[in-house]
Write a structure and sequence with these properties.
This protein is an alpha+beta fold. The protein has helices at residues 19-31, 46-53, 69-78, 96-106, 134-186, 205-212, 219-233, and strands spanning 6-7, 33-37, 59-66, 86-93, 126-129. Belongs to the ESF2/ABP1 family.
């Protein structure tokens, strides 16, 4: 989870929980509710979202997803807006009833505020996530990060393979051109690059045995066929 998009209570020293404390902690987690915001207004930071949501109830943790790095690079290159932008967010309320009420009340409503404020005319787009807890969000983010890393590794491997193939072809062309120059001086025909042969799929043992096995015809049957052919002729 990117710490730049996180806004929550200050970190504390974690102490071992007693069975009673663990039961109370689980009950507290069961009472929480999470609201999903599908669009974060440009330039709004986690601290601002936390401040706005705290007006309606006690807020636990807030996490906003940063925009794609490519989008950030292009925006900072071609515009004057250099501030970090976020695309979506999650807000944890201590009471899931409050979370449900807030999502129903604010969805598709203007953010509001004092006249002239930056996000006064922006509209909230949010929904309540039933049976969704904060630990599910952290697991989802970790899974997406691992998937992106695996995809990146595949792309890098493919790019290296293509680059090596290109360099190999360039070197081969250089060698062929050099040899052709020498052959031209001697009055010989130039060499032609060899075409790659298509690799045939491997043949398994069963297929090979079927090809090798031919139907056997016994002598009696062969003689009978020969007599029929001779009889039809004469």
């Amino acid at each position: 989870m990117d710490l730049a998009g996180f806004a929550g209570p200050s970190s504390k020293v974690v102490k071992p929980l007693t069975p009673e404390g663990l039961a109370a902690f689980n009950a507290e987690i069961a009472r929480t509710g999470v609201v999903y915001i599908s669009r974060i207004p440009p330039g709004m930071r986690p601290e601002k979202v936390r401040h706005l949501m705290s007006q309606y109830g006690e807020v636990g943790r807030v996490y906003l997803q940063k925009e794609d790095p490519k989008t950030t690079y292009l925006r900072r290159k071609y515009t004057t807006d250099k501030k970090p932008h976020f695309t979506e967010g999650w807000v944890e309320f201590k009471d899931k009833k409050v979370a449900r009420t807030v999502a129903t009340m604010l969805n598709a409503q203007p953010i509001g505020g004092k006249k002239g404020t930056r996000w006064r005319d922006d509209v909230w787009t949010m929904t309540y996530l039933p049976k969704f807890k904060w630990n599910m969000l952290t697991e989802q983010i970790a899974h997406e990060a691992a998937a992106r890393a695996a995809k990146l590794r595949v792309e890098i491997t493919q790019s290296r393979s293509e680059q090596n193939e290109y360099l190999r072809n360039v070197e081969l062309a250089r060698i062929v051109n050099k040899r052709n120059e020498k052959r031209k001086e001697k009055g010989l025909e130039p060499l032609q690059p060899k075409e790659k042969r298509e690799k045939r799929p491997p043949v398994d043992d069963d297929t090979r045995e079927k090809k090798n096995k031919r139907p056997r015809v016994d002598d009696d049957a062969r003689n009978a066929q020969l007599q029929d052919v001779l009889g039809s002729i004469f």
